[in-house]
Amino acid sequence: MRQVANWALDMAARRGASYADARIVAQRSRALATKNGKVGSASDAESVGMSVRVIADGAWGFAASAKLDRGSVEATAGRAVEIARASARVKQHDVRLAPEKPVVAEWATPYRIDPFSVSVDENIALLLKIDAELRSVAGITLAETNLNFNREEQWFVSSEGADIHQTKLSAGAGYAAYAFAGNEIQKRSYPNSYGGQWQNKGYELIDELKLAENARRIAEEAVALHGADQCPEGKFDLILDSSQLGLQIHESIGHPIELDRVLGMEANFAGTSFLTLDKLRTLRYGSDLVNVVADARQEHGPGLGTFGFDDEGVPAQCTPIITNGLFTGYLSSRETAHTIGENRSGGTLRAEGWNRLPMIRMTNISLLPAEKPLSLEQLIAATEHGILMQTNRSWSIDDKRYNFQFGCEIGWEIKNGKRVRMLKNPSYSGITTEFWNSLDAICSRDEWTLWGTPNCGKGQPQQVMGTGHGAAPARFQGIKVGSAYKSS
């Protein structure tokens, strides 16, 4: 594969490119799902191809091909140079890359059990077992389960001398139980909504999640929600479980810190950002308890944003994003680093596959836990009157990532430190900086989970990629609650 990549680099150099890199990517994915006792979908797909990215006349050019013979590879490199020269006619300034020492390296996701070594029959048997357990609860009208595995092997070679081989492996699983009664549908998901939990692990993740063991409880909660009281409206202290807090981080911190959005280079799907450059190291983003990092390193955990090197050969790093409440960092690339006064990329440029141009993407954007021991039950016990919300149901946020509203699957009213009643249709809303400044308590490391978000969309053409978000349950003071799903 390195020889194939070198064909591309040699052709790009002969055509006059001042910089070139080539990525060859081989991907395999397995996706299985069931619905009400039947297999809903099943696929096992593979793809391989390459892309060439060049700078010529001070502008970028990009081209990709599924063919790896020498003629096709050289033609692809030539096309990338042609595109760069065409782009140069309308450039506002020359592309400027932050220096990066070229690396020769091998990296692979640690795992115990290769998920592709487990048969499809065994996978489906597990899903049908969970499905049957969900539907055994009276009142469940729909049960859905899913199981997903991905392997991506990549070779990256650059004209600066980088030569990197990476193999990334991920697994994901989850299910949902729906109960339809009257004119209302209630839903409970496990271990999270929108596909469950995903991490860079092997099949061992599936065993760790204890899927079948939790199925009956989840189904019973979905049915019980029909008899629960409507979430009250008003201002309350709000406790979010770690999975909902992970999505809150994704939408109100992760997207606005993407430097291409800030600079107006990208606005698809999630819009731009309220975090203009003047706010760096001046904005009070949250309370003193808020410490957020963008960490792609393996030691942070097996998140979907974990890797050895990004897609322009920059090693995984940890960037402080919010430090004791102060906004301290963006997600950057070699091209954008100089705009924030940095002399090195933050290592966040990634692409969905071989036929997509790398762009700034979230790594693992995580809220660090409290250092002093604090469990969720202790946090509840220390809350006089509040509402606990669990598992995302819906979200809405403006294109600057400033005003938001989230709905959750289930809530619990807390009075005098105890859960006193289940609540249906809970929701909350706020303004990003006001919300994070209202945080007054975070649970400790024992309650911290690194959640996987496998379906983050960005760019045109669209790229869907995985990100990670670590969080422990946390409490926010005086939050507007209950307006999203008003009772009729």
Automatic annotation (TrEMBL):
Q: Using the record's annotation, list all stretches that form the Metalloprotease TldD/E C-terminal domain.
A: 234-466
Q: Which UniProt keywords apply?
A: Hydrolase, Metalloprotease, Protease
Family as reported in the entry's similarity comment:
Belongs to the peptidase U62 family.
Domain Metalloprotease TldD/E central: where? 114-224
Keyword Hydrolase listed = yes
SUPFAM superfamilies assigned to the protein according to its UniProt record, in alphabetical order: Putative modulator of DNA gyrase, PmbA/TldD (SSF111283)
Protein name per Swiss-Prot or TrEMBL: Peptidase U62, modulator of DNA gyrase
Source species, domain of life: Bacteria
Protease found in the keyword field = yes
Domain Metalloprotease TldD/E N-terminal per the UniProt entry, residue ranges: 20-84
Q: Which GO terms describe its molecular function?
A: metallopeptidase activity
Q: Name one GO biological process term.
A: proteolysis
